[in-house]
Amino acid sequence: MNKIWLIIQREYLSRVRKKSFIIMTILGPILMAAIMIVPAILASIGDETKTVGIVDESGFFIDAFENSTNIKFEAMHLDIDVAKRDYEKLGYNMVLYIPKPAYTYPSKIFIYSKKEPGMNVEQYIQRSINNDLRTMRLKDAGVSEELISAMKNSIDISSIKLTDQGGEEKRAGSLYFIIGLVLSISIYFFIFLYGTQVMRGVIEEKSNRIVEVIISSLKPFQLMMGKIVGIAMVGLTQFILWVILTSAIMTGAKLAFSNELQQIEKYQMQKTGQVIDPANTVEVNRNYEKTAMVFEAIKSINFKVIIFSFLFYFLFGYLIYAALFAAIGSSVDSEADTQQFVLPITVPLLVAIATVQMIANNPDGPIAFWMSMIPLTSPISMMARIPFGVPYWQIGLSMLLLVGSFVLLTWLAGKIYRVGILMYGKKPTYKELAKWIKYKA
To answer: How far is CA 297 from the centre of its chain?
Structure first.
């Protein structure tokens, strides 16, 4: 056991001292915290208010445009050529030109400006004029104003999950998909990054003949497990540091945006009827609606289950693939010879990543279920499902299958490693690997 521990220490310390490890440890928390902090920053900063001058030759649409938080409309009683020339002097950001119609209504409108107006402004203007034009045509067709007004009413859909205990939880499918995608891709890269590090380390030691000296003092299986566990500890260290640093950044952000968060919380309570005192009413002069929805969705996520599951699936997913990568590294003499063996074991990972979208569309479907049960795909597929909510028995069964497969595949990989680590000058085939597995110690 002491010999394995020495290998673990060597693998661990040689990697945590690298600059790449330090850089990624710092960048990771910043990216994760940004997902939580950006909505509050956007709400506190807001967009620049743009003033749009309207030159309406048709005379139909002067009242079609309602001012919003970031867009203000004013009529310009000028010729279009004069308006285009002097709009900046008059304090406008752009000119909206509605030409005189050839027949009944204009078929095209124009926006003139030196700076890019932005997609939001263009879409708002287009939506406003189309709504007004639709109203005009309905009136011309004899539809009453009451019916037109009723047709404009839109319905908001809220997806509510009914729990087994009879409670209700609000769903946020888009956010769940983003979290699942980020976690799945993280595990994918963790497995590839640290798994290939194991393979390259074995190849390097084998090609330099260092392994012959090491093997003289410990068993091949001890060397393999020492390398795998040592590099696994590097990944776990990085993840734990990410959690600690992200929590620190989030705590600092809460202090910096405490007033903004209080306003958003008041707005949420105001919408749900929990605040009826006019003194506590939030004036909606910022984009609180979307920000409040994001924070409400974040609160509905079970982060304890997600963090525990991520640690488990990262660890055992890595251990399975690291053992396979170690077996490949021991059976070849150079990295160029690994392609024929690497491709088959990476296909399950690629399939799992390719089906993340499909799993998000139907997290309880048969494809999602079986992909999260198959050990070679479950680390990625299950993490794509967990934010949506997965029955605990399915998580437990998936974990049990993953642990059992780890024991079996590590035993097989160890038998290949035992023979291959001292095999030189021969390119093995799959048939040859099968023989190595059958060799008795």
So the answer is: 15
Residues of the chain with pLDDT under 70: 1, 32-48, 62, 69, 102-107, 145, 148-173, 210-216, 250, 253-301, 425, 440-441
Question: In terms of Cα–Cα distance, which of 335, 340, 361 is closest to 174?
Answer: 361
C-alpha dist (Å) from residue 273 to 115, 193, 268, 276, 277: 43, 50, 9, 7, 10
283-292: list long-range contacts, CB under 8 Å, 24+ apart: 285/69, 286/43, 286/44, 286/46, 286/69, 287/42, 287/43, 287/46, 287/69, 288/43, 288/263, 288/264, 290/39, 291/39, 291/40, 291/42, 291/43, 291/264, 292/264, 292/267, 292/268
Question: What local confidence, expressed as pLDDT, does residue 329 receive?
Answer: 84
Domain range annotation of the chain: 50-149, 172-438
CA distance 437 to 435: 5
The one-character DSSP state at 218 is S
Q: Are 61 and 126 a contacting pair, CB within 8 Å? A: no
By CB atoms closer than 10 A (0-12, 13-18, 19+), residue 190 is buried
Q: Which two tokens stand for residue 281?
A: 């009413």
Instruction: Point out which residues pair with 50 in neighbouring strands.
Output: 71
Give me the helix-helix angle, 303-331 and 392-420, nearest 10°. 20
Per-residue pLDDT, 278:
47
Residues in contact with 138: Cβ distance below 8 Å, sequence separation at least 6, in sequence order:
148, 151
The burial class, CB within 10 Å (0-12 / 13-18 / 19+), for 173 is middle
Give pLDDT tens digits for 34-66. 666 665 555 555 556 788 888 888 777 767 777
- Residue type present at position 43: A
- Rounded Cα gap, residues 324 and 405, in angstroms: 12
Phi-psi label, residue 357: left if phi above 0, alpha if psi -120 to 50, beta otherwise: alpha
Q: Is 202 helix (H, G, I), strand (E, B) or coil?
A: helix
Instruction: Indicate the pTM of the whole model.
Output: 0.64
Q: Which CATH superfamily is domain 50-149 in?
A: Periplasmic binding protein-like II (3.40.190.10)
